[in-house]
Design brief:
Two copies of one chain form a homodimer. By secondary structure, chain A is mainly α. Chain A has one domain: Ferritin, CATH 1.20.1260.10. Chain A is built from nine helices and no strands. Chain A is globular and about 50 Å long. Chains A and B meet through helix 1, helix 2 and helix 3 of A and helix 1, helix 2 and helix 3 of B.
């Protein structure tokens, strides 16, 4: 069971993944700007740098194919900006949890999807997206906050459960070619089950019930 | 005439320069988040990446000397945050002008100051700070806006004149050792004249009267 045959064309994939990483960068930069102390700010600067570097790696692939980055990303602005607005959270810890959970799930997803790209680009993109995201600081900050504040922990558990739904919708919309008649849903289902399992492990790692 | 003998110690220099570049990054990230279109957003992502890379280069130097980045930057937070608040502008073009003018002037200044650092670090820091800042997109956006809107042009000219004063104050405070009795002011003056001349050339290049 795999979804590689449901992968969109290269241009679609690169434009969407590039704008997705730019959004991840923007969210991390916002978390950095409002960080409670310098050590956390510095840690977030690393995570923001990693997201930016993934974004620029995808932009390089777009240019290598002779396309304009702004043109290629344009079709995905409305949906991904909406997604980011919905998942930005009411306060700093919710924003941090979104960066970590949505970022992790969507990186996993786009890596899976890249199996369906041509051999001259798929593996390179998978490697790029699989690079360390520098999210250690997010995990540490969230764990500490959750351990020290039971009420925050329950609120974040609810928030994490909501995030997975919104994020899977974005993932689903990244496969425009999926045709029900071809049994696409049956192939997508097990992959989504895997993505949800990884999400649950991330929640568990933070001490949150998924 | 040079100011290298007025340079602060290495730790002071690195902590201050590192936090300064982090602030430049934050300002560029904010300009990116509110950019009017995708092409400009993409251009600003390059500029933000360059500032972040200078910041991380300085952080590497701090760690190489066995110090904690957060501790080294801490003494400069209040003054530099205040400076950034004062110079962030009332709207997007003012913010953009600040990123370009303050960033240019302070990079010039810290490069000059790095002459006074030990030989095992000064030249490396000068090279790092002298790397391309990717500000082409800022120049282009500002030029176009100024050409098309006379009122905006006069407002930005006034803003640019105010920025140079605030920025020189920050530069002046970066030389804590300067002792009037040793004729420090006489050595500082010609360097500031040079910095102002470079600032004026940047203003001219945008079509603004300095």
């Amino acid at each position: 069971m795999d979804i590689s045959s449901l992968a969109p064309g290269v241009r679609h994939f690169l434009g969407q993944a590039a704008y997705r990483e730019l959004g991840e960068f923007e969210s991390l930069a916002r978390a950095l700007a409002t960080a409670p102390n310098l050590a956390v700010k510095e840690g977030l600067s690393t995570a923001a740098g990693r997201a930016l570097s993934k974004h620029h790696g995808l932009i390089t692939e777009i240019r290598r194919r002779g396309h304009e980055p702004a043109t290629e990303m344009a079709p995905f602005v409305v949906a991904l900006d909406g997604f980011r607005r919905e998942t930005s959270g009411a306060e700093w810890h919710e924003l941090l949890l979104s960066c970590y959970l949505c970022g992790g799930l969507l990186d996993d997803f786009f890596i899976r999807l890249s199996d369906g790209l041509p051999r001259d680009i798929g593996p390179r993109v998978a490697q790029l997206l699989g690079e360390d995201s520098g999210t250690g600081v997010l995990i540490q900050e969230l764990q500490t906050a959750i351990e020290n504040d039971v009420a925050l922990g329950s609120r974040l558990a609810m928030w994490g459960r909501r995030l997975v739904g919104d994020t899977l919708l974005v993932a689903r919309s990244a496969m425009p070619a999926a045709d029900p008649a071809e049994g696409a849903e049956a192939r997508i289902e097990p992959v989504f089950t895997e993505l949800i399992a990884a999400h649950t492990r991330r929640m568990d790692g933070l001490g949150l019930t998924a």
